[in-house]
Design goal:
11 helices; about 75% helix; globular; membrane; threonine-phosphate decarboxylase activity
């Protein structure tokens, strides 16, 4: 029940306050990661797996030491407030919705250039030449994938390992986003961060795919999950994207431009073409998923309380 209340207050805080506009811990952490990599690069270790592993270890260990210190020194009530604050900063559900709607609204109004510009803020692909369907598809993919990474994975790790689990997951996810690209500069250095993120997201990704299936077109989602997930280049994004596309009954995936060149990606989903309405449907799918998780957590907490009392 305490976990349910912490999650409920974290979601409520996110709903009311949204993501901090300045001084977000993940932004500060990213700056620290850039500095550490620059130091290692100057020492001739810029493309070393060992250097990347040491950097990941240092960047993850430091906040855990601080948390351990806080756990020993702070009263229980203050620690619970810290858990609410930490989970609130990790979830970013409102931010996900705001960024998606910033694309959806101009797309609905036929303002394609404005929609492309808003999309460029949330994806790494080239957006200048995308048509309306491609813009809607890219935004929908972003909602589905970030729903897994920023929302459901954070809830999963909080339930499994408390605030330390949430922090390790979000920091590893941030390092993967910064260093996990297979470029000449990062191919070896970012390998540890990428593999750690894959491990930490393995179960949350499949629970997210199951959530999308239960909250949408379940038969279509299951079919897409089974047939299309393995074809995706990421072992965790594949189930999430395939099940999400199937749940929405929309066509996603396919070739996309990155850094001036097209990248082949398999098709995802069975259904109609993506549109502005699809973006709204994806947002509602994530919202229904959060509600389902909250209901299950509450039911589990009540059942455990009854068992404890009866015992």
């Amino acid at each position: 029940m305490i976990a349910f209340l912490v999650i409920a207050f974290a979601l409520l805080t996110d709903r009311i306050a949204g993501e901090p506009r300045r001084g977000h811990p993940l932004v500060l952490f990213g700056g620290l990661a850039d500095w550490l990599r620059a130091v290692l690069t100057r020492r001739g270790q810029g493309d070393s797996v060992l250097a990347g592993g040491v950097a990941v270890l240092l960047l993850l260990a430091a906040p855990l030491v601080v948390l351990l210190w806080c756990w020993w020194l702070l009263p229980a009530g203050v620690w619970l407030l810290l858990e609410v604050l930490g989970l609130y900063l990790a979830i970013a559900l409102r931010s996900l919705q705001e960024h998606a709607k910033a694309v959806m609204r101009p797309l609905e109004a036929g303002q394609l250039n404005e929609a492309r510009q808003a999309l460029s803020m949330i994806v790494s692909r080239d957006t200048a030449g995308l048509d309306a369907e491609a813009v809607a598809a890219a935004t929908t993919e972003s909602v589905l994938e970030n729903g897994a990474d920023a929302v459901f994975a954070s809830l999963f790790w909080y339930l499994l390992a408390g605030l330390p689990g949430v922090i390790v997951h979000r920091l590893a996810n941030t390092l993967d986003a910064m260093w996990g690209y297979r470029t000449p500069e990062l191919n070896r250095f970012g390998r540890v961060a990428a593999r750690l993120d894959d491990v930490l997201n393995y179960l949350p990704a499949r629970l997210t795919a199951l959530t999308y299936m239960l909250c949408g077109n379940a038969p279509n989602a299951l079919r897409c999950w089974r047939e299309q997930a393995e074809g995706w280049d990421s072992p965790n994004a594949g189930p999430v994207m395939a099940a999400g596309a199937g749940a929405l009954a929309v066509r996603l995936g396919g070739p996309a431009p990155y850094h001036g060149a097209p990248r082949h990606r398999p098709a995802l989903g069975h259904g109609g073409a993506a549109s502005a309405e699809t973006i709204g449907a994806a947002i509602r799918l994530v919202q229904r998923g959060v509600l389902l998780w909250m209901m299950l957590i509450l039911a589990g907490g009540l059942a455990w309380s009854l068992i404890t009392v009866a015992g």
